[in-house]
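Q: Hi! New to this. If I give you a protein sequence and the SMILES for zinc ion, can you show me the bound structure?
A: Yes, paste them in.
Q: Okay, here:
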Amino acid sequence: MLGFFAWFTFSLLLASFLEWFIHKYFMHTTLWLPVAVERHAVKHHAERRAPGKFIAAEDELEEYHLFETSAMPMVWMLHFPVFGLVYLGWGPWASFGCALGTALYMVAYEMLHWSIHCPDKFWFRNSAWFRFLSEHHRRHHHRSRINYNVVLPLADLVLGTLSFEPVQPEPERKFQEVS
Ligand SMILES: [Zn+2]
Ligand SMILES: [Zn+2]
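A: Thanks. Here is the predicted structure of the protein with zinc ion bound:
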């Protein structure tokens, strides 16, 4: 059981570096996967960059689908050999902890990224950590060479891309209550 918690925690920390690496090298570098660059660096960044556009308009929400989701289960499945190695070295609980940690991180990525650009008011919108993550990502939309993490900016901190540079504030906006 100790192996489960140790590997669960370790995989969350490791996922921060994976997120950074995938975002920087696959979503912003044309060398490997042009379709990911087109969807993310070109389309998503351009659409959500101008002041007042960072949060989608209500009528844009249907179009603002989870376009990065489609690749996520695949990225996770690519790690099956890693889960296998952890299983061989540390046993089934450790392997389960690793698989669960990375899966939760990916779900958190999609959920947070969507919430950051979503025009609805939800219970954590005004929480300090969500506002921090939202501003962190807003800076990334203004300058794409900083703040690659969405969920846990550990890799940004360690790899020197963490930035707090001020960007023009978004216009005030009333959020739609969700029931
Ligand atoms: Zn980006
Ligand atoms: Zn974004």
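A: The beta strands are 120-121, 176-177. Let me know if you'd like me to explain how to read the tokens.
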